[in-house]
Specification:
Elements: H1 2-23, H2 28-44, H3 48-55, H4 57-60, H5 63-81, H6 85-111
Length: 118
């Protein structure tokens, strides 16, 4: 049942984002920012954790999960370090994921021949 919930909830998130891209004049970058901010807001309102327990990877893999990760990092850093945690918490919490994305992207560029769009 965990796989089923992850599949349909993650698919629903992706479908809603696709509808938003197709039906509005919002650019993809702005939609991604909305998703990250939405995940942080849902985390701050304590709505995201029960949602993630239900959906599993269907909720944590999309950009909503990244926003929630940033929120949790900032909240934890503020509790430990005070006001400076606002600036350091999000980076500390997401450093491993960001580093992995950069390293694997670089390795893929070495293996395959990247081309510029015309």
């Amino acid at each position: 049942m965990d796989y089923f919930n992850a599949f349909w909830i993650g698919g629903l998130i992706c479908a809603l984002v696709q509808i938003l891209l197709d039906r509005t004049k919002l650019m993809p970058g702005r939609v991604m920012v909305l998703l990250v901010c939405g995940g942080a807001i849902l985390g701050a309102l304590k709505i995201y954790q029960p949602f993630q327990e239900l959906a599993g990877a269907g909720a944590s893999v999309p950009l909503l999960g990244f926003g929630n990760l940033l929120w949790n990092g900032v909240k934890e850093a503020v509790d430990q370090e005070g006001i400076i945690g606002i600036f350091t918490g999000g980076l500390g919490a997401s450093a491993a994921g960001i580093t992995a994305a950069l390293v694997f992207g670089y390795l893929a560029a070495l293996v395959f021949e990247p081309k510029m769009k015309k």
